[in-house]
Amino acid sequence: MRELKILAVVVFFALLTYYGVEPYAHSVMHKDVEGYNFTYDGTADIQEATEALEEAQASGRNVAKAQARLEVKKAFWSEVDKIAKIPGNVANGQAVFGTCLACHNGAGVNMGGVIPPNLDHAGALYDKRYLIAVIKDPAMASNVDHKYENTMMHPMGSVTAMVSDPQQIADVVAYMLAKKAGDVTPKAAYEEACARCHAMRYSKITQLGETPSFTDEKDELAYKIKVLQEQELVEAYMGKLPPDLSMIIRARSTHFLETFVENPQSQLEGTSMPRVGLSQAGYDKVHEYLTEIGDPSKKHREALGPWVIGFFVIFSILAYLWKKHHWRDLH
After folding, report:
1. What's the rounded Cα separation, in Å, for the pair 175 and 191?
2. Which of 8, 26, 63, 200 has minimal Cβ neighbours within 10 Å of its Cβ?
3. Domain ranges of the chain
């Protein structure tokens, strides 16, 4: 029985460390961030603005500015909610969507510091309210309004001159949800939502897209120069070059990635990374691709795990019976 007692002690402390000590250490090292299940109704932004106001009031500085920012955010998300309730006309939305193609055409041309996203699968990747919000005011929707004295200085700010009427916004969003959706592969989801800023060297993806094959070394060098030039533009726009995401799936926890993608400000206050606006389904696609590239053996490893545990259980039983058999006469 002594061996079983030792095993019980080892198991107890292993479980205590895994379920008690490690979560506590993580909570001390990383602040607890609440997720919102990829729902964009302004709750997170208003909460952040409210906390900023309370801090301003406590310090006695910038109170009026903080109060004004809170009121602006409340008004903005209230208007988004009203537009979300307007029935959209898909046919009319198609005509309005034509104005978007001047920038969102997949040509890979940098505009204002970053390449505009391809909207081929916008309806499948992004949340409805976020799409409404980003048309209405991209800086506010992306929660990077702190970067701009006037949010219309955002590179996409001029869209309000073309799509400003609430019905037009409802129509174009209805069109994207109906016609720019369909099935999207994990790779395409990553390319459309993330690759304009985040390279992934393990899958040969740069800010210009997937790296083509070259037969001439001069062509390869010319392409590398284009990539470096694009990275310089992104770095100037963002403040620093966004990290390569090849191994991010192993570097960060699932909860961190979910809450960071949902609202970067929640994990890194003041960051210039915009909220992307992915829906739960869209995030799942991106997460699947990150796992495919950063941890390709995960499925095989998880499938093998129960067999390994089973082996150790059976081996432990056999070892105990063997020991009991050979030591039966030793008392």
Report:
1. 22
2. 8
3. 31-296, 297-331
Q: How far does CA 72 lie from the centroid of its chain? A: 25
Q: Which residues lie closer than 8 Å to 281 by C-beta, 6 or more apart?
A: 124, 125
Q: Report the run of H or E that residue 82 belongs to, with start and end.
A: helix 63-84
Note the pLDDT of residue 248.
94
Instruction: Over range 159-181, report the average pLDDT.
Output: 90
Give residue for tokens 């490893």: 301
81 neighbors 133 (Cβ within 8 angstroms)? no
Residue 94: pLDDT above 80?
yes
CA atoms of 63 and 52, how far apart (whole Å): 9
**CA distances in angstroms from 268 to 133, 197, 244, listed in the order given:** 22, 17, 17
CA distances from 288 to 56, 124, 205 (A): 41, 15, 16
- Reduced DSSP (H G I as helix, E B as strand, rest coil) percent helix, strand, coil of the chain, to 5: 65, 5, 30
- Per-residue pLDDT tens digits for 106-125: 888 998 889 999 999 999 99
The pTM for the full model equals 0.84
Contact 195, 209 (CB under 8 A): yes
- Average of per-residue pLDDT across 207-235: 95
**Is 49 within 8 Å of 263 (Cβ atoms)?**
no
CB 93 within 8 A of CB 154: no
Q: Tokens 């919000």 label which residue?
A: 133
CA distance 128 to 126: 7
Tell me how far apart the alpha carbons of residues 178 and 307 are, in angstroms, rounded to a whole number. Answer: 45
